[in-house]
Amino acid sequence: MGKSLIQQRRGKGTLPFLATRNRLDTRYAAKTGAETGGVLVGQVMDLVKDSGRNSILADVMLENGERELIVAAEGVFVGQKLQQGKDASVEIGNVLPLFSVPEGCPVFNIEKVSGDGGVSVKTGGSYALLVSKDGKKAVVKMPSGKNGVFPIDARATVGNISCGGRTEKPLIKAGVAYFAKRSKHLRYPTVRGVAMNPVSHPFGGAQHHPGQSKSTARSAPAGRKVGAIASRRTGRKKKL
Question: Which terminus, N or C, of the chain has the lesser number of Cβ atoms within 10 Å?
Answer without folding.
Answer: C
